[in-house]
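Example 365.
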Amino acid sequence: MQIEAAVFRKVHEPLTLEAIDLDQPRGREVLVRTVATGVCHSDLHVVDGVGRFPLDRPIVLGHEGAGIVEAAGPDVTSVRTGDHVVACLSGFCGSCAQCLSGHPNLCTGAIVARNESETPRLSLKGQPVRQFLSISSYAEKMLLHENSVVRIDPDLPLDRAALVGCGVLTGVGAALRSSGLEPGQTVAVFGCGGVGLSIVQGARIGGARQIIAIDQFAQKEEMAKRAGATDFVNSGEDDPVQAVRALTGGLGVDHAFEAVGIAKLCRQAIESLAIRGTATIVGVLPPDATIEFPWMAIRPECKVQTSRMGSNRFRMDIPLYLDFYRQGRLNLDDMVTKRGRLSDINEAFRAMKAGEVARTVLTFD
Ligand SMILES: [Zn+2]
Ligand SMILES: [Zn+2]
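Predicted structure in complex with zinc ion:
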């Protein structure tokens, strides 16, 4: 069948809306009518040519999608036609060592994409069009493996649920699952985009006593405070490490999070730690990035660790975080700062670069 999709063909050039072909679901695949998709930084990284993925083009980007199942392959067992689902890039096999030990976000099984020898899911005039992260949500419909989606309650708004598929899952999970945060501890979050603001919310839900949000854009202060930050540091004006020390009586914080993917911010996060503090790097750095810090900067028994997609078990965590939303503990409404249609995708990238938004959400009907 033909669908409309935003196709990425050339680095630094706008995506183009095109009619492409979508195959039928086979085996364990589901066909999902896209209702909403968030616009995530990882897509922008690809457009700007700084992604860690060596990507063949043309490709349909987008990976923060939610929608309604229209058809299912003969071997699908977890969802059925009419179900509301959220897609997640942490598609899992269920049988590798990481999956079996409770870490499906680190799955090495690679079953959610089709093999190179098979008919591609997306194509144009018989030529393959690549699928981003086995999702490709910048399109009217998504064809994906059932282990790339989770069913959610149908009363939940799909435009906000979509965000939980990537940015919110990553940020809330970094605080609640990866970091080891305990109630009453202190937190600093470097970067207040969609992920950083979700870390702030996760830290609040996890019982942090002080949450210092740091960003170079002054307009992020209000968003950060609404998310639960107790303090805001404008890193365009003040040295963030000194500011964190000053705000914590010289101690530093128990947990520092890097939410952008910049080596300098990783160093600042490490330098902001208290004794026995933990720096959790959530952002994705360029593959050749080097994080350097003076020995003096790291206090006794500090830890530096990374977090991949919020250490999620997304089949459990997405419904859990949506319960937090329903209970008023997780604010998704304020995360959507801009709305648009698929044709607004390039404007959404511009707004993200300008630091104007937590998230743009594109809707399809
Ligand atoms: Zn993402
Ligand atoms: Zn696996």
